User: What shape does this take?
Amino acid sequence: MAGPMAKAKGRSKTKSSPTKQDSKPLVGIAMGSQSDWDTMKNASDTLTQFGVPHVSRVMSAHRSPSLASEFASTAEAQGLEVIIGAAGGAAHLAGVLAAHTTLPVLGVPMKSDALHGLDSLLSTVQMPGGIPVASLAIGKPGAVNAALFAVSILANSRPELRAKLHRFRDAQEAKIRATVLS
Ligand code: RP5
Assistant: This one.
């Protein structure tokens, strides 16, 4: 199926990749609406950059609650190790996903029309004690950072992925050091 409805990407093509042996997705990217895909594609692209297999799905905590609970409650058995949950408005998707799994859930608040994402941020970050959601920044920076955070979690047991993260940071710093203002 095309688009974000069921999109598995990022399988390694190189022998040395830490994820070569993992044919199944390691990260699940869930978003509340297809309208979130423009933003969440940045998370998918970042995971692809690191060669991390992942799947992107649309599911809603309020429009398709059974799909969201089924996705989260079967995620571990499916081989997923991290879930990214993105939603806007009264953004309870990440919290609902976290309620159905003990896998780490990273929440990305979407920028909303009415309150520019402040509603999404507070809905995602203000989880009552007992069910954690790690919340990232609103919008694209949060989407990119959620993917980087997922990579860093996966890197705990994949040294080659850790090395890729170091190379990523080094390149980022080199770019800043090379910046010349005219
Ligand atoms: C949330 O409502 C979604 O995550 C999205 O950010 C927001 C608006 O959804 P649409 O009305 O564009 O489908 O559930």
Q: What stands out?
A: Residues 1-5, 11-22 have pLDDT under 50 and may be disordered. The beta strands are 7-9, 27-31, 54-58, 82-87, 105-109, 134-135.
